Amino acid sequence: MLRLAHGMALAGRRVDLSGLERMIGPLCARSLDLPPAEGRQLALGLYGLVAEIDAVRAALAAPPD
Description:
The chain has helices spanning 2-10, 18-31, 36-61. The chain is elongated and about 45 Å long. It has one domain (2-61). It is 75% helix and 0% strand. It contains three helices and no strands. The longest helix is centred in the last third of the chain and has 26 residues, at 36-61. By secondary structure, the protein is an all-alpha fold.
């Protein structure tokens, strides 16, 4: 879903990330309930998600070509 959103943003299309943002918050909160080893594993994936979301936001903020 993020790759599609990123491609759309790069093409100058409008992308609404609000639904995704609503899902990420609870996911992060629930990760705190995991045992430490599992939480560390999940954290790596969450950092990757944040990086992908930041890339989409940057593409949305960039002026169209």
